[in-house]
Amino acid sequence: MKVNIDESWKKHLNEEFDKAYFKDLVEFVKNEYQNHTCYPKGQDIFAAFDHCKFDELKVVIIGQDPYHGIDQANGLCFSVKDHIAMPPSLINIFKEIEQDLGKPFPKTGNLERWAKQGVLLLNATLTVRAHEAASHQGKGWEQFTDQVISTISSEKENVVFLLWGGFAKKKAKLIDKNKHHILTSGHPSPLSANRGYWFGNKHFSKTNAFLTTKHLEAVEW
């Protein structure tokens, strides 16, 4: 089955595209996009993979659902398009980077610049109906993205997995802890962050410290 995803990922995921659940998922997504407003745009559904080549991948950040507001989602978890107001979770991510690394608050919430440095910004569900959070959950995306995580775990080594919040932490079971580095904390959403579960986790400096010990280039957050 032909799927419009970056070539570097195809050899690792081609078998998945031919499975019955994925074919059903494709039909569901096509129908949703034809009959409803959905996000992200069709060409951006696999943007996380298109901007982060498999061979260059060194960090994985796991989100749950794309943003469902008008023109927010760009196919990368936590990221928004240029000139779109930053959602609260993203603001808290940048506040932590500011505290952790002393970097100034950025002008854009578009995280393509991270992806191009080898950060896979992976939502567990890659599509959503406008203004209906979680509307595409349980349709097959989670099976696919779990396979992505398992494939990264088995085929690569020394990848940093950033698991923020209860949902992401459950993905730890898919990751070989002897080959990779896992960092966990609360979610950057205001509810979690304001209770003290997010700020001060220093995940960005810790990630770079680990990468440096493995002679890999640090991420310019």
Secondary structure category? alpha/beta
What separation lies between the terminal Cα atoms?
Answer: 36 Å
**Major sheet attributes:** 4 strands, parallel
What percent of residues adopt helix (DSSP H or I)? 25-40%
What is the count of helical runs?
9
Shape: globular
Widest sheet: strand order? 3-2-5-6
Average of the residue pLDDT scores? 96
- H/E topology pattern: HHEHEHHEEHEHEHH
- Integer-rounded radius of gyration: 17 Å
The counted number of beta strands is 6
By oligomeric state, this entry counts as single chain
Low-confidence stretches: none
Q: Work out the strand percent.
A: 5-15%
Feature tags:
alpha/beta; 6 strands; two-stranded antiparallel sheet
Summarize it.
Excises uracil residues from the DNA which can arise as a result of misincorporation of dUMP residues by DNA polymerase or due to deamination of cytosine. The chain is 38% helix and 11% strand. With 221 residues, it is of the alpha/beta class.
